[in-house]
Amino acid sequence: MAVKKQVKTTEVRQVTYDRRTGSRVKSSVKPGDIWSDWQEGQERWLFMSAHDDDIVSGCGLTFLAAVEAGIQVFAGITTNGKMGYCSPKVKKTIAKVREKECLDSFRIMGLDKSRVYFLGFDDGSLNLQGGRRFATASATGPVLKGATGLQNSYTWLLRTVRPTRIFLPSITDLHPDHRMTNSEMVISIFHAQGNIWPELGAPLEKIPYLYEYPTYSNFIAPPELRIRVTGELCERRLDAIYAYKSQEQIELLVEALRQTGPIEFIREMKFDIFDSSACNKLFK
User: What is the reported pTM?
Assistant: First the structure.
């Protein structure tokens, strides 16, 4: 497969943000006008994925918009990608190949490798790696601070990056690894804002805002946010996808995104903690 060359252009890079509230839509080129509780100069966005290519394919335009706006951006890659081989010849080397492709892709999108966190969980079996447990000699997952499990690594990552916003794959996604990334991160936020497991870092002062991006499946509810970009940023996103040369189906994904055009949709999630007063109102 021929690798697509990056397009050189002098086109002005512009991002337009749209927020839907009921039947009304508010639009602005200033992110602070659209994103809830904007913290000028203090925004830290953490993009989480199950697999290395999920972010660029699912919310690459949002990612690029954040970079263009000067926001501090970080990426967390949960799995090692070892199930992404398309030929028996690369079965034992695909994890290293994909890690390099991932760093190349993020470089195209303007993210330094120091802000990419590879958590190293086995690809294709996150349902077996949830929770947190103390590591033993037979531990199969990544060991961090004497423990293993998704909630261990996610809580540490949250306390390390301390994001103001987190972007996750949709909870309704067809891929179980994507659903696990969503659910295990959300419960890890609950852990990270408390005093539990102090060896993983200082508690978060504030719960970050949560957002979902689509990969294989539709949202569980209509999205509230739309990101529109100029053609140059759209092409850069496609160039970043082409970095994953080992994934032979990449041409189909690029063609589908090209047909969609320079737009992307994001759903704002709620971090819901049970409130008995809300239920009690139903009985009055």
Answer: 0.92
